[in-house]
Specification:
- It is a single chain.
- The protein has about 240 residues and is of the alpha+beta class.
- Helices cover about 25% and strands about 30% of the residues.
- The chain contains six helices and 15 strands.
- The strands form four sheets. It has a four-stranded antiparallel sheet with strand order 1-2-4-3, covered by helices on one side.
- Strand 7 and strand 8 form a beta hairpin.
- The chain starts with a strand and ends with a strand.
């Protein structure tokens, strides 16, 4: 049932999530603005980790692939989780009463497995759920296990668990490792690192012959290895 994601496109990081009253003030506090076209909060990409932290604080997860494949099904008594006209669990709205005389609507992946919810409640201006303890038990399916971190362990029961897709996790690990390699290639070498003339040329944006000439004239710190090849030492 999850649709929480943090995505970075060029210089913008987006938070896509269901509505939660805690999100707007927290998003604005870190420079977020609502993007009506995307139906998402947008931030400077340099604040991506802060955005992910916000998502984890409210929803228990920031939508990483690992969280998306580690799913559970839980059962709850809605009496513990009702707030006026809504039932909320793990930061998500899982049930709501549109008006006093309308039945409670349930989010996708949420079903009543025993009992029933009151068919009406509250007033015309202020509808409410008004479920009593034991009135009903709701089952919430395919919820990221990480989302449970924002709930009291005594307020739910895990009834089913999805075994993580190992192949999907391994594929994601390879993707992340490849991205780390790309980032490493863009970062300057730490001072004292020894590289070949070809590597030095690529890093400095000059030809290999130029690097060799600089090595001979002392313009770059260099020594020769046992095979007589120049080894360049990064000094700045």
């Amino acid at each position: 049932m999850d649709d929480i994601r943090v995505e970075t496109i060029d210089t913008i990081t987006y938070l896509i999530s269901p509505y939660n009253p805690d999100v707007p003030p927290a998003a604005r506090a870190i420079g977020g603005r609502w993007d009506g076209a995307r139906k998402a909060w947008k931030f400077d990409s340099r604040d991506e980790e802060r955005v992910r932290s916000l998502a984890r604080e409210v929803f228990g997860t920031d939508g990483t692939p690992e969280a998306a494949v580690d799913l559970v099904t839980v059962r709850i008594d809605p009496a513990y989780h009702q707030i006026k006209a809504e039932i909320r669990f793990a930061g998500r709205r899982i049930g709501w009463r549109p008006s006093r005389d309308e039945r409670v609507k349930l989010a996708d992946g949420v079903v009543v497995v025993s009992g029933s919810l009151p068919s009406w409640g509250g007033s015309r201006a202020n509808p409410r759920i008004e479920a009593e303890l034991g009135d009903a038990i709701l089952e919430i399916r395919d919820l990221p296990r990480a989302a449970l971190s924002v709930e009291d362990a005594d307020s739910y029961e895990i009834v089913d668990q999805t075994v993580p897709d190992v192949d999907a996790l391994l594929a994601e690990r390879e993707r992340l490792l490849a991205r780390l390699a790309e980032i490493d290639a863009l970062l300057p070498e730490p001072e004292g690192t020894e590289v070949t003339t070809r590597q030095a040329a690529a890093a400095l944006g000059v030809s290999v012959r130029t690097v060799q000439r600089w090595a001979k004239t002392g313009k770059v710190a260099a020594t020769k290895d046992a095979a007589g090849r120049w080894v360049i030492t990064i000094t700045v």
